[in-house]
Amino acid sequence: MSLRIDSEPVQTFAALFELRGSADTGDLTLTTPIGSTLAQLHWAPGEALLKNGSETRRYDSVDALIEAATGAAIPVGALFGWLAGRNESVPGWRPDLGQLANGRLQATRESPSPRADLRIVFERS
Fold first, then answer.
1. Rounded Cα distance, 125 and 116, in Å
2. How many CB atoms lie within 10 A of CB 50?
3. What pTM was computed for the model?
């Protein structure tokens, strides 16, 4: 997973990931290429937790949780739909589902500014 935010200065985030669950209840583990855990995210109705090392922080929503972990608001509900091949509509976002069969997803946020480019390479387990 990589994310580029065209802010000033440009922000980038890249990590290996394991995503389980659904938009309502799920887990996302972010790791470095050598396998060190960067963060563990867990969400369920009424709960959104970010575990980073020995620190656990609570958030009001899964969207706030994802933004804290990656630096940008990524529409989690739509992400599950996009990965399933559904062209979920999210204001400001333009997904490219043309390479899903090859394990690739790209989505671009045009608004609100700054522009963000999300690229995901995945395997289904």
1. 28
2. 20
3. 0.86
